Amino acid sequence: MDPSREGSLERAELWIQTKFTPSEQTTSVAAAVRASFKSSLSNLGVSYLDSFLLHSPFQDRADTLIAWREMEQIHREGLVKKIGVSNFDVEQLFWLLDKANVAPSVVQNRCLAKQSWDEEVRLLCNLHGIRYQGFWLLTGNRQILSHEVTQNVARYFSKTPEQVLFRYVIQALNISALSGTRNPEHMSQDLEVETDHMELTADAVQAMAGIVAPYDVNDHVHVEFRNALGTEAELFWMSESGEAVPNGRLEPDGTLLVETRHSHQFVANTANGATVWAFISDRSHGERQVATINTVVNVEFINVGPNSWSLFWRHPDGKEETFMAVLQTREAVERGTHVGHVFVARRESGEAIHEWTMEPSATRTIFQFGDKSSHEL
């Protein structure tokens, strides 16, 4: 997006999609659908929507059909361009296609490698010309992101593993990739997947397709969290929507047992609210695991530019720097460090061009840098 046009976009340049979520209704199903739609228009300040989805089927199919009929009516009134569904399995989608007067234009589902990327639903969508939107692509596929193949493809293309995964599902599986990030830098990186003319080679696609994901979100993991911070810590589970859900407090050297699932993410905050540690449960490490809460961060710096750079660690007082390494083009160096530590990349002239402050990360953080830009993987 052109920054000079900020605030000047026309409505037609935006795609706005929202959902109706079934719940315990105090009114009729049809009235609830209509009220939800009107509320969306009001809250968003628009006169129409591009897409309106049924968030999930009702327990009673009769209610699901009533909701769909009201959505069809809203579509006929010209208030929404497309209607669709979310969290429908292949049998439910077959049923709706048989009953619908207006066929769904969009299906939005959780998409996991362990479940063959929701292949049955995707194939049915392709057969009927339905756009398939995939969500939880990053959170639910951590093993794909951390897999050696994905990491190597990312290095080859000078992209992040997240960008590679998004590009793979778009290019190879015909999935519209949804991103729920609130981080502006990550938003920009996600958009680059389309705007930067990124294209995976046939070999890269074949390599990505060959990755086997042995576990998914349905696999249980029992984690014993141990607090090694030396101060009280509060543990949070990060929900699918990004909400930090409190899981308990740990005194110094204290422990907390949590039953969770594969790929679930946790963070730990200190008493002042600062996030100092992150963790992702990975079933491949065993059904029972120990996770030590500390400030350690593992990082890798990769020079993707044509010139050599010198890497320095800046002392906490901010006055002195310690030389770490010289990185020639395409060279890399790995370091174990701590949250809050600062690293600086300097030209041969001594000019500082890149500077990074270490943040909590559940996986190894990779910084690619060169003359033009710096990317965090």
UniProtKB/TrEMBL annotation:
A Pfam family found in this protein is Aldo_ket_red
Q: Which SUPFAM superfamilies match?
A: NAD(P)-linked oxidoreductase (SSF51430)
At the top level, the lineage of the source is Eukaryota
Question: What InterPro entries does its record include?
Answer: AKR, NAD(P)_OxRdtase_dom_sf, NADP_OxRdtase_dom, VHL_beta_dom_sf
Q: Which residues form the NADP-dependent oxidoreductase domain?
A: 10-211
Q: Spell out the molecular function terms from Gene Ontology.
A: oxidoreductase activity
Which CDD domains does this UniProt record tie to the protein?
Answer: AKR_AKR1-5-like
Q: Which PANTHER family match?
A: ALDO/KETO REDUCTASE (PTHR11732)
The protein, known as: NADP-dependent oxidoreductase domain-containing protein
Q: Which organism is it from?
A: Noctiluca scintillans (Sea sparkle)
